[in-house]
Amino acid sequence: MNDCKKLLCFSAIFVAIQFAFTLPSSAQSVDKKQMAEKVKTEFLHAWNGYKQHCWGRDDLKPLTKTCRDWYGTPILMTPVDSLDSLYLLGFEKEADRAREYIVKNLSFDKDISVQNFEIVIRVLGGLLSSYQMTGDKRLLALADNLGTRLLPVFDSPTGLPYKNVNLRTGKTSGAVSNPAETGTLLIEFGTLAKLTGKPIYYDKAKRALVETYNRRSAIGLVGTNINVETGKWTNTDSHVSAEIDSYYEYLLKCAILFGDIECRTMWEDSIGKVHSYLADEGPSMTRLNRTGTTTVGDLWYGHADMNTGKRTSTTTGALDAFFPGLLALDGDLNRARALQDSMFLMWQANGIEPEVYNYKTRKVEHGGYPLRPEIVESTYILYQYTKDPKYLAMGKQMFEDFVKHCRTDVAYAGLKNVETKEKTDYMHSFVLAETFKYFYLLFAPEKTLEIRKIVFNTEAHPIRRTWKN
Ligand code: DMJ
Predict the structure, then answer these.
(1) Looking at residue 298, what is its pLDDT?
(2) By the 8 A CB rule, do 438 and 387 touch?
(3) Which residue among 146, 225, 274, 460 has its CA within the 20 to 30 Å range from the CA of 95?
(4) How far is the CA of 27 from the centre of ligand 1 (A)?
(5) Using a 6 Å cutoff on CB, does residue 377 contact ligand 1?
């Protein structure tokens, strides 16, 4: 064979391998009903494990069958985070029981210093979404009580929130924060403002988002860490991964949920800069642009310095996998599809996705898998916006891998290492709040939740605009 023929042959094999990776079973049709039932069965398995071993506590450690409370005393993290999933998956009786337990036992009058961001997205978001589903005013009262206790976080010289606040005393701590924690608050606080008629919640969280955006660099990027007292960046690495990810998510989603024009402007300005400086597009992506059809997954988003735009690393990971869904929500289906294919390649490299993956070397850089939902979320959103059965096949493959590698006798356990598949002794509340919810919604009947009528907070709690303005 001459060199030219060899090259052609090699290229053809390479493309064929990529296709094989990208589209494992798109030819075979997926039985949605059967898949939805399987997801429900596995959700119940995990929920029952939590109930049996840790009822009334925060989280289950599924290998030792022991429990963890985040702050030494329970704030019912798993029940609150899971409540709307219980309703959506059709476990109404279970949900009603959990709801009664929550309203009777949950008190925020506790001398504990909590991480504002996590409490907002899991607990405040969970209470608000479940309130909207049930109309139970006691859930709204709990949300309002929690919101008031969290408000002191915004009392910094810049209006950017401190990381932590004591729920009883209001004492704040943690001056060095990040855009995800300063900018992922408005869906929850804004909704609380609309539902209680207390605009202070909206105003404080909106200011935090704007102050984050205002500190973008001259080329329009944000960094990883910022001091909320000085407003100065302490880490200038820019990306769409941990510590920044949901800042971008809330710019777009707050524009949609609240019709907030400033959020829309900030989003449109920011997303252009993200594409310019963070995207790495390979030859397959170029082909997508030319033909507008098939993708083989060669679009990635890496890291760059926020001031120079210089590439600092070519890593992505499980957290970054929310981004195809966000692009789809923005109507950018070409990029969304291409990036989703890339993320699925990352998943398939080890039959489950790692926390950090180098898309240039194709090597795992941090092999943990804490049962994250983001790739499932994007699969669901892409399916909703394209109706391409390829995403059902993708979701089916992921669900089968998820069950195969992470199921335990009582629930689900994260992986220490996706290469060895060794398990780790933890099941985050987001497994029931998000991972199972998105798996279910992917296969569930359309009427279960009309995606165009809600906005998911970053913890998969659906929020409906039930207010006028
Ligand atoms: C969740 O708590 C939220 O989705 C958050 O935005 C990111 N981390 C976890 C899930 O991976």
Answers:
(1) 84
(2) no
(3) 146
(4) 32
(5) no
| Tens of pLDDT, residues 345-383 | 999 999 999 999 999 999 999 999 999 999 999 999 999
Measure 430 CA to ligand 1 centroid, in angstroms.
7
Task: Tell me which residue of 133, 131, 132, 139 sits closest to 89, measured CA to CA.
Answer: 133
Name every residue whose Cβ is closer than 8 Å to that of residue 116 and which is 6 or more positions away in sequence. 150, 153, 161, 162, 163, 164, 165, 181, 185
Q: Is 395 near ligand 1, meaning CB less than 6 Å away?
A: no
Integer Cα distance of 40 and 86 in angstroms: 10
- Please give the average per-residue pLDDT across 399-415, as a whole number: 98
Three-class SS state of 234: strand
> Which is the catalytic residue, given 81, 144, 353, 374?
374
Which atom of ligand 1 lies at the shortest distance from residue 245's CA?
Answer: 6
Other C-beta atoms closer than 10 Å to the C-beta of 272 total 11
Please indicate whether residue 430, judged by its CB atom, sits closer than 6 Å to ligand 1: yes
**Ligand 1 atom nearest 460 alpha carbon:** 4
Which of the four pLDDT bands, split at 50, 70 and 90, describes residue 297? low
Which of 10-24, 42-56, 305-319 shows the lowest mean pLDDT across its residues? 10-24
Backbone angles phi, psi at 172, to 5 degrees: -105, 160
* 305-320: pLDDT as tens digits: 999 999 999 999 999 9
CA dihedral of 354, 25, 34, 320, whole degrees rounded to 10: 30
For ligand 1, whether the C-beta of 241 sits within 6 Å is no
Region 125-147 average pLDDT: 98
Task: Tell me the pLDDT band of 208, cut-offs 50, 70 and 90.
Answer: very high
Give the three-class secondary structure for 173.
Answer: strand
Confirm whether 245 is a catalytic residue. yes
Q: Which atom of ligand 1 is nearest to the CA of 377?
A: 4
Nearest to 74 by CA among 26, 104, 36, 110: 110
SS3 content of the chain, % helix, strand, coil (to 5): 55, 15, 30
Is 374 considered catalytic here? Answer: yes
Ligand 1 atom at shortest distance from the alpha carbon of 249: 6
Q: Which of 58, 249, 298, 355 is catalytic?
A: 355
Give pTM, 2 decimals: 0.93
**Lookup: tokens for 68:** 């963890």
Torsions phi, psi for 316 (to 5 deg):
-140, -165
Mean pLDDT across the chain, nearest whole number? 93
Ligand 1 neighbourhood includes 459 CB (under 6 angstroms):
yes
Query: Quick check: is 355 catalytic?
Result: yes
User: Tokens at residue 133, please?
Assistant: 């589903």
The pLDDT of residue 28 is 65
- Residue 322 beta carbon below 6 angstroms from any ligand 1 atom: no
